[in-house]
Prior knowledge:
Number of helices: 12
Helix content: 40-55%
CATH class of the largest domain: Mainly Alpha
Number of strands: 10
Largest sheet: 4 strands, mixed
Structural class: alpha+beta
Amino acid sequence: MDFSITPDQRLMQESLARTLADVSGLERVRRFAGDPADKGADVYAALADFGLTGLIIPEEYGGLGLGLLGAALAAEALGAAVAPGPFLGACVLAPLALRLAGSKAQQGEWLPKIAAGQVVAGVAIAEQVAGARDGAGVTASGGKLTGKALFVTDALIADLFIVADQAGGLHLVRGDAAGLTRSAMISIDLTRPLGEVVFAATPAEPLDGGDGALAALRDAGWTLLAADTLGAAQVMIDKAVDYAKERRQFGRVIGSFQAVKHMCAEMIAELEPCRSLVWYAAYAFDDAPDEASLTAAHAKAHTSEVGRFIARTATEVHGGMGITDLLGLHFWFKRIGLNRQLLGGPERVRRLAAQIQGLTA
């Protein structure tokens, strides 16, 4: 029995990787990270042409109708390329929220526009998923939102927001709504802009067509962040191995030294189990929903720890060159670092996994 991805899924991932190599090479990533005014419009347009914006949107609304496994394979390719621009919130979490909890009218209005790449949607759920920081949190009353949301995906370019309130309800807010202000939040990963959004009695439409939608967004987010880390970590290993084959010291390539061999072998041995863990979490989201939350938690927590180990070890293999901008290794290093903390660090995620299994209150 074959437990791997299908040939079509592999072909999709490889095709996306080639597209990203053409439109989002390292120099393009470097320009994006160095210019706050760069919105990555060319990269987003190429991804929309590829079909990424409609990846999980049903065909009746102009999408491809794929499941979360397809989105996870795309996230893996995006992490490998440290691609700038919207994906997690705009292409997956926002359409998923509309699919699960939106009314027919809301779905009909927004899903075709998202699938066509005409609308970018930001997602503000960090306070409910990862815990609120001082002063953050959004309350809903009388069809209006008040409060502050942090770590909002694509906040500065979003035409639409999906917002979670403190009671766990989801709301749809137009980007030009009255009382909405946004500002940039600087994180270590400059390839994926995050923002702060403030609501002052801002008009909002409730998304109330389904129960458990916020938990589903959490599980999907955790799985895709794990997939992104998987792709980024694999590239860091590949770069470390290639460097070890070329760098010479004491008259021989450093890859011939036993200590360097062990470092590379240990990275590979740590990462490989993460692949099946992430793929199964994505599969379970659609096909084994009773296991979805636990497997997503396992994937996020474990891949976060393994990713940090690989980021550190791959940099050490490169020696002093590993921290220079010339190689650009820091882009993957920081991508893994943000993935570790975004929507909850591994400690918080493991606590939920323990609760699901009845190991703690």
